[in-house]
Amino acid sequence: MKITAITATQQQSPAAKTKASDDFASVLAQHTQAPAAAQPPMPPAVLGIQAALAQETERTVMKQLTALMDQWDAYASSVEQADLKQGHAILSAIHHNLAAVKETASAAPNLDARLHEMVNELEVLGAAEEIKFNRGDYL
Protein backbone atom coordinates (compact mmCIF):
# COMPACT_ATOMS: atom_id res chain seq x y z
CA MET A 1 0.00 0.00 0.00
CA LYS A 2 1.45 3.31 -1.05
CA ILE A 3 0.73 6.61 0.78
CA THR A 4 0.58 9.49 -1.65
CA ALA A 5 -1.20 12.20 0.33
CA ILE A 6 0.80 14.70 2.36
CA THR A 7 -0.98 16.14 5.36
CA ALA A 8 -1.26 19.85 5.98
CA THR A 9 1.13 19.80 8.93
CA GLN A 10 3.85 18.24 6.80
CA GLN A 11 3.42 20.93 4.14
CA GLN A 12 3.93 23.89 6.54
CA SER A 13 6.97 25.95 5.86
CA PRO A 14 9.59 26.58 8.54
CA ALA A 15 8.51 30.25 8.68
CA ALA A 16 4.94 29.23 9.61
CA LYS A 17 6.23 26.95 12.35
CA THR A 18 8.40 29.76 13.75
CA LYS A 19 5.44 32.17 13.73
CA ALA A 20 3.34 29.65 15.66
CA SER A 21 6.05 29.14 18.26
CA ASP A 22 6.52 32.93 18.57
CA ASP A 23 2.77 33.31 19.18
CA PHE A 24 2.92 30.66 21.86
CA ALA A 25 5.93 32.30 23.48
CA SER A 26 4.18 35.68 23.62
CA VAL A 27 1.02 34.19 25.14
CA LEU A 28 3.11 32.28 27.68
CA ALA A 29 5.01 35.42 28.62
CA GLN A 30 1.75 37.34 29.12
CA HIS A 31 0.34 34.69 31.42
CA THR A 32 3.48 34.25 33.47
CA GLN A 33 4.04 37.98 33.94
CA ALA A 34 0.45 39.06 34.65
CA PRO A 35 0.07 37.64 38.19
CA ALA A 36 3.41 39.00 39.35
CA ALA A 37 2.54 42.51 38.20
CA ALA A 38 -0.91 42.35 39.80
CA GLN A 39 0.41 41.60 43.29
CA PRO A 40 1.99 44.50 45.15
CA PRO A 41 5.37 43.77 46.68
CA MET A 42 5.35 42.87 50.37
CA PRO A 43 6.94 45.32 52.75
CA PRO A 44 10.23 44.15 54.30
CA ALA A 45 8.69 44.08 57.79
CA VAL A 46 6.09 41.52 56.69
CA LEU A 47 8.75 39.39 55.03
CA GLY A 48 10.85 39.53 58.20
CA ILE A 49 7.91 38.45 60.36
CA GLN A 50 7.13 35.57 58.02
CA ALA A 51 10.77 34.44 58.08
CA ALA A 52 10.86 34.61 61.88
CA LEU A 53 7.65 32.58 62.14
CA ALA A 54 8.99 29.99 59.71
CA GLN A 55 12.20 29.65 61.75
CA GLU A 56 10.23 29.31 64.99
CA THR A 57 8.02 26.64 63.45
CA GLU A 58 11.07 24.83 62.13
CA ARG A 59 12.64 24.87 65.61
CA THR A 60 9.42 23.54 67.12
CA VAL A 61 9.25 20.70 64.58
CA MET A 62 12.91 19.87 65.18
CA LYS A 63 12.35 19.69 68.96
CA GLN A 64 9.32 17.47 68.44
CA LEU A 65 11.28 15.21 66.08
CA THR A 66 14.11 14.97 68.62
CA ALA A 67 11.63 13.92 71.30
CA LEU A 68 10.17 11.34 68.90
CA MET A 69 13.60 9.90 68.20
CA ASP A 70 14.19 9.58 71.94
CA GLN A 71 10.87 7.74 72.24
CA TRP A 72 11.92 5.40 69.42
CA ASP A 73 15.09 4.61 71.35
CA ALA A 74 13.07 3.88 74.47
CA TYR A 75 10.70 1.69 72.44
CA ALA A 76 13.58 -0.27 70.93
CA SER A 77 15.14 -0.92 74.33
CA SER A 78 11.79 -1.99 75.84
CA VAL A 79 11.16 -4.44 73.01
CA GLU A 80 14.71 -5.71 73.30
CA GLN A 81 14.16 -6.37 77.02
CA ALA A 82 10.82 -8.05 76.23
CA ASP A 83 8.86 -5.48 78.24
CA LEU A 84 5.88 -5.49 75.89
CA LYS A 85 3.57 -3.58 78.23
CA GLN A 86 5.93 -0.64 78.32
CA GLY A 87 6.65 -1.03 74.61
CA HIS A 88 2.97 -0.77 73.77
CA ALA A 89 2.60 2.34 75.94
CA ILE A 90 5.61 3.97 74.26
CA LEU A 91 4.32 3.05 70.80
CA SER A 92 0.96 4.67 71.63
CA ALA A 93 2.80 7.81 72.83
CA ILE A 94 4.81 7.83 69.61
CA HIS A 95 1.61 7.79 67.54
CA HIS A 96 0.14 10.61 69.63
CA ASN A 97 3.27 12.75 69.36
CA LEU A 98 3.64 12.00 65.66
CA ALA A 99 0.14 13.36 65.07
CA ALA A 100 1.17 16.56 66.88
CA VAL A 101 4.30 16.86 64.73
CA LYS A 102 2.29 16.32 61.55
CA GLU A 103 -0.16 19.03 62.62
CA THR A 104 2.66 21.47 63.33
CA ALA A 105 4.44 20.63 60.07
CA SER A 106 1.29 20.93 57.95
CA ALA A 107 0.57 24.37 59.43
CA ALA A 108 3.86 25.63 57.99
CA PRO A 109 3.84 25.43 54.18
CA ASN A 110 7.34 26.94 53.93
CA LEU A 111 8.88 24.25 56.11
CA ASP A 112 11.93 22.52 54.71
CA ALA A 113 10.92 19.57 52.53
CA ARG A 114 13.44 17.32 54.29
CA LEU A 115 11.54 17.79 57.57
CA HIS A 116 8.30 16.79 55.84
CA GLU A 117 10.10 13.70 54.52
CA MET A 118 11.30 12.81 58.01
CA VAL A 119 7.77 13.14 59.40
CA ASN A 120 6.44 10.92 56.62
CA GLU A 121 9.15 8.30 57.18
CA LEU A 122 8.47 8.26 60.92
CA GLU A 123 4.78 7.81 60.21
CA VAL A 124 5.48 4.83 57.97
CA LEU A 125 7.85 3.39 60.56
CA GLY A 126 5.21 3.81 63.26
CA ALA A 127 2.55 2.10 61.18
CA ALA A 128 4.87 -0.80 60.35
CA GLU A 129 5.91 -1.19 63.99
CA GLU A 130 2.30 -1.18 65.13
CA ILE A 131 1.45 -3.91 62.63
CA LYS A 132 4.43 -5.98 63.78
CA PHE A 133 3.58 -5.44 67.43
CA ASN A 134 -0.10 -6.38 66.98
CA ARG A 135 0.82 -9.39 64.87
CA GLY A 136 2.93 -10.74 67.72
CA ASP A 137 6.38 -10.54 66.21
CA TYR A 138 7.89 -9.68 69.60
CA LEU A 139 6.37 -12.54 71.62
Question: Could you explain the architecture of this structure?
Answer:
It contains five helices and no strands. The protein is an all-alpha fold and 139 residues long. Helices cover 81% and strands 0% of the residues. The mean pLDDT is 76.
Describe the secondary structure blueprint for this structure:
Layout: H1 8-11, H2 14-38, H3 44-80, H4 84-106, H5 113-135
Instruction: Quickly give the structural class.
Output: mainly alpha
Seen as an oligomer or otherwise, the chain set is: single chain
Helix content: over 70%
Overall 3D form: elongated
Radius of gyration: 28 Å
Summarize the structure.
The protein has 139 residues and is an all-alpha fold.
Name its key features:
mainly alpha; elongated
